[in-house]
Amino acid sequence: MSVVRLLAVVLALFLVVPSGVLADVPAARLTVSDVVVDPATPVVGDQVTVTVTVANSVGSESAVRVEELRLSDGENRLARATGVGSLSPGDGVTVPLATTFEAAGPRVLTLSVVGTDTEDRTVRIQRPVPVVVEAAPPLVELSVDGAAVDAETTLAVSLSNPTTAPLRNVVVTANDSVGRVVDGRRTLPTLTAGETARLNLSVVPTEAGERPVGVVVTYTTASGVSRTTTLERSVAVAPFVDDVGLAVVPVSGETAPDDAAGGFDGLLGGLGGAAGLAGGAVTTGGESADDRPLPTRYEVTVTNFGTVPVSNVVLAPTAENETLSRVSLPETLAPGAAATTTLDLASVPEPAVVRLDATYRAGVRDGSANATFRHVPAVADVRLTDVDVLRADGRVRVTGNVANLGDADLSGVVVEVVATDDVTPVFPHRDYFVGSLGGSDFAPVEVTADANDSATEIPVRIVYRVGGERVERVVAVTLDPEEETQNAALFPAFDGRSPTLDAAVAVLAVAIAGVLSVGVLRRRPTRAWLRERTRKLRSRPTRTASDDADRFDAVDAGREV
């Protein structure tokens, strides 16, 4: 009995339960055939598209009307689509759902699809959608200055990591949209959180005008996902212009101090000059009106008036078809910039037209420029002026001035008689040391010699140094045979004294008077001495020409006259 009852109960359940379940199953069966997340690894703040493909199964007994597609993150609804449409058995529809994420990290979204069959029964399905949201990409900034055709242009890239996690394997590359890439790749092993890195790339634009330029940044996120971000902007590219100017300016020398104004040292210097007149002591030439020597150095300014950078500048001067020492500029001249160097033409002692050739790199091309200027160096032009020849009984005295008609400063100036078969230098002035002689300056000189009856000239040699070199010049002073008779009458006029000695005495008197004016010497004895000295000089007996000749012989013999 119990067995029969058990079978009856089982049979009753079999008949009741299936009939109830079958009554609740809709005639339509919805399926989600595909879900695509783009990008696959979304980034915080960027839009993410979840594309869903929904189909009504082929085995469905009725059509279905898709009422809603909903994408949720827990209780938070991210995206929703309604009124999608009806699907017959076997039909499908693709619906995109767009959203953004405000926080990074992995999460599982829920996709819900709700529909109604022909008998108004609700059809509902759900599918999980796993997503990993990454932090924000690195911030990229691009700066381009001075872009020009055929000029290497720098792309200054700034990378910043705004996240709290490091970015690894960062690679920055330049695209070739603007022209030829020269140095287009930089890498960073790690860009730490909050760090900013600056990298330089270089390209050579090939066309002028508004041109696009961009960089591509690839990196690996903290979760190990490789990502890429790009940045592109428009830049103005200037046409290629090669225009280099050369300006040459002489460098003036330093002006020597003017010691002509008094003081006791200046007074003694004047006395030294007077003593030179009397006995061939050391003298110096007076100061010229302008002591600045003509230049041997020139300041060369190279200016870039073009649109491309100029580098590797080499200046090569040429004078009289002779190439001189070259000069280079180490710096690169940006458009509008200038640089200055010094050119030394001390090796060109004579006036000349100098051609200055400049070679350089203008952008990625070779360039050249040239300029010419006249080089007028300081030169020495030494002459004897105001020459006076006194001759008696074979004895000759030559007086005059050694003059520097040039601009160069002379040193070690010596005037001397050159010995020949007919002429012999004799005491007291075989030679005469002048010392220094500036440009456009002069100094008095006196030399003495013996000349026989065959002598027609006295060779006088002037020796000096200019620009570090020793120079000799011989001047022939003509002897007129008739002058001996005329000069015989002139010798007595000097009262047996050298005219230079009288000049020395006169200068000495003036100098002593100047000293007295400042109280250095006592007034009364000095005036008495001057009066006595003047009386003795004037009271000397007048000598004849023959007496004067005897005096020369006595001087040569070393006797006192």
Describe how the helices and strands are arranged.
Blueprint: H1 2-24, E1 30-38, E2 47-56, E3 64-73, E4 76-87, E5 92-100, E6 105-117, E7 122-133, E8 139-144, E9 153-160, E10 167-174, E11 179-183, E12 185-191, E13 196-205, E14 209-220, E15 226-237, E16 244-250, H2 264-279, E17 297-304, E18 310-319, E19 322-323, E20 327-329, E21 338-344, E22 352-362, E23 365-375, E24 382-392, E25 395-404, E26 410-417, E27 423-425, E28 431-437, E29 441-451, E30 457-466, E31 469-478, H3 483-493, H4 499-517, H5 523-538, H6 545-557
Antiparallel strand pairs: 1-2, 2-5, 3-4, 3-6, 6-7, 8-9, 9-13, 10-12, 10-14, 11-13, 14-15, 16-17, 17-21, 18-19, 18-20, 18-22, 22-23, 24-25, 25-29, 26-28, 26-30, 27-29, 30-31
Helix pairs in contact: 2-4
Class derived from helix and strand content: alpha+beta
Structure summary, number of beta strands: 31
* Bulk shape: rod-shaped
- Count of discrete structural domains: 4
Q: What is the H level of CATH, i.e. the homologous superfamily of the largest domain?
A: Gamma-adaptin ear (GAE) domain
Summed up, the helix count is 6
Helix content: 10-25%
How much of the sequence lies in strands comes to over 45%
Query: What is the averaged pLDDT score?
Result: 78
Largest sheet: 5 strands, antiparallel
Low-confidence stretches: 1-23, 254-293, 488-501, 503-507, 515-527, 540-561
Distance between the termini: 189 Å
Protein name: CARDB protein
Keywords: Membrane, Transmembrane, Transmembrane helix
Transmembrane segments: 503-521
InterPro entries: Ig-like_fold
